[in-house]
Design a protein that fits this description.
Order of helices and strands: EHEHEEEEE
Largest sheet: 4 strands, parallel
Strand order of the largest sheet: 3-2-1-7
Structural class: alpha/beta
Number of helices: 2
Strand content: 15-25%
Distance between the termini: 64 Å
Number of strands: 7
Amino acid sequence: MTEAFRVCLVGAGAGGLSMARALRRKGISYDHFERHTDVGGIWDQANPGSPMYDSAHMISSRTRSGFIGFPMPDSYPDYPSHRQIAAYMRAFADAYGLRKAIRFGVQVLSAVKDGDRWAVRLSDGTEGRYDALIAATGLAWHPRMPNYPGQFDGEMMHSSVYRSPDIF
């Protein structure tokens, strides 16, 4: 008896949710992991490491952005706030029943190609083997700080920790 083809999907931001819907539509089995407690990726300001600041908004029009077949609400402004984008992503996940397949609070610690499969180790102590791996983890999670020669006694802050001008 052969094992069914199975995919490991990492991340529940825009890319991860898009892939989850596509896999489901094609009838492809997958396990979906998200280290945060909800969907939304960087658009969810409560997600540790999110670079969203209080006044952040989308830089592309809501009429030209969003998930195929699931337009943003007409009530949204042309350039929605990060809160509206996060709410929209949650509504998308709910509309397609994607949340029930996501294991929230579980981080993928390693994914190593082992022959023709992927050996995946998770933060909850479990491991799995998959035929394919989709890493939809985004690109803005790990801030890089410059290293300048000399002495600087001031405070250095990466833009990812900025939320509002109140700190200044």
